[in-house]
Every structure is written in structure tokens, then in C-alpha cells.
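Single-chain item
Fold in C-alpha cell form
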Amino acid sequence: MKVEELISQHKRELIEKPLRQEQQNKIKEAKGAALDLENNIVSSIYDQNMLKRKLKNKSRKIER
């Protein structure tokens, strides 16, 4: 390899490495956001089911 080729390869690596790291960081952020969203959905469903149960129990008490 010529010296110029080595220099240009090194420059490319210096540029590409931070870009790859930045992409990995964005992927990690996106995964975290997706997990948060999933947890919020699960929590909302759980809350809905709890409210339905409470409502059923109250309606049963009223019927008695």
C-alpha cells in the first residue's frame, strides 16, 4: 500500500468510527423509548382491568 492510501484509509476510519458510535447510541435510545412505550401500554391495560374489576364489585354490592 502506498502512503497516500494508508492516510486516506485512516481518515475514513476516523470519520466512520464516530458515525457508527452515533448510530449505536441512537439505536439504544430508540430501544429504550420502545420499552418505555411498551411498559406504559401494559400499565394502562393493567389499570383498565383493575378499574373494570372495581366497577364489577361495586355493581355487585349495589345489586345486593
